[in-house]
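Q: I have 191 residues here and want to know how they pack in 3D. Can you give me a structure?
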Amino acid sequence: ESNVPSIALDVGDQVFRVGLPTLRKYPGSKLANLAWQFDGDHHHADTQPVQPVFIDRDPGTFGQVLQYVRTGVPPAIHAARDYHLLAAESDVWNLPHLKQAALEETLKLTDGTQRIDLSKFNLRGCDLSALDLTNANLCGANLLDAKLPRKLSGANLKAAKLPQNLSCVNLQGCFLWRANLQGCDLSDCDL
């Protein structure tokens, strides 16, 4: 029996028991904040847990987030849609490293013949510089403060929020209708 203080989390009617030190692994994340908020409050003297804390999220995706927090390794998933969900869930819990890994794995799963769909994704601050986003659907995506690859040719950037520094980025053939280019540096851009 472990003496590590833990908390029970009821996520979509599935109960997860997690050690408070595990939840604190990523300072600044919502899980770390949750651990500090409930530190010691969910155990009686006889070590019987009180009512689990209810969290209104999908238990499957939350389990993958928890696996990442425990191991530091993103879960092995074989469908791009599942990684999209995981990347979105990482935003909820403020786990940018998981989000970055999920996006990279999403792109690895494509065979190059299908259009990458990252529409309406919050990619703010992500390092996308090493990724091939040619012909990607980034419609409505938040790319503020993101590091973009040099080549975005053919990408759908309709209504996307773009970073200010677009110098030297190849935007040839991009769909830019309603894209936010206000304040963008387009010097040396291939349009």
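Q: Anything worth noting?
A: The chain is about 25% helix and 10% strand. The CA atoms of residues 90 and 96 lie 7 Å apart.
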